[in-house]
Structures are given as C-alpha cells and as structure tokens.
Amino acid sequence: MTAPAIILPAGCPAEAALDVIAGKWKGMLIFHLLGCTRRFNQLQRMCPGINQRMLTKQLRELEDAGLVLRTVHPVVPPHVDYQLSELGLALQPVMSSLQQWGKLYLSSGGRHGRCSEGQLHSLKETEQP
C-alpha cells in the first residue's frame, strides 16, 4: 500500500521558494554571494561551465525576485557589483543546510558531474576522525 500523495494548496510557500531559486546556477550564485560583493567576471570564474548569456539571465532573475542587488558604477570600463539583498541573505541557513546535505550525499557515494575525484577524495579526508 502506498502513502497518499500530499496535495499542496496553490501558493504554497515551499513551492514559491523553490521556484525562485530553481535553476542550474542560481543556488551556486547565491552561495558565492553569501557575505560578500562580487563582480560579474568573478562569478563567471566561480561557476565553470556557465556562459555569459546564462550568467546574465540568472542574475537578472535573482534581481527581479529581490534576492540580488546590482550596482553599476559610472566608470570606464563599466564596473558592476552584485550582492545579496536582505531577502537573499535570509537564505544563508538554507544554503548552509544544503551544503551539509551535499557533503553527506557525496560521502555516501553519490556523484555529481561537477565534482572531480580530487574534490571527493578531500571531502572524505575531512570527515575522518
């Protein structure tokens, strides 16, 4: 016998939260913006595999959702900074929990295409007593 499906009401808070942070790169961008301001190129280097168009799109969506603040400095060449808003900073405990769960998942044999063998090996070394 299977458990009955949980039916969530329209406008469910969990669904709304997941809609805002869903996407291949948004979680990583939020993680890299925790506690500091970053420039566009810094974020692109921190997310290997993301192209300029996708990074721009993801940052705009986070900005539209009120999670990221974008500051354009009127200099040549253009200088744009990104930082988390107060609402974005409220995700810090969520991101911390996801990081801990990710460590547990990877250490139990789970795999992710962006984790190299070296990263997985160093993860296992840090968890040994």
UniProtKB/TrEMBL annotation:
Stretch list, region Disordered: 110-129
Pfam families (UniProt xref): HxlR
HTH hxlR-type domain boundaries: 12-110
Domain of life of the source: Bacteria
Gene Ontology MF term list: DNA binding
Record key words, sorted: DNA-binding, Transcription, Transcription regulation
Name of this protein: DNA-binding HxlR family transcriptional regulator
Organism: Pseudomonas fluvialis
Upper classification of the organism: Bacteria, Pseudomonadati, Pseudomonadota, Gammaproteobacteria, Pseudomonadales
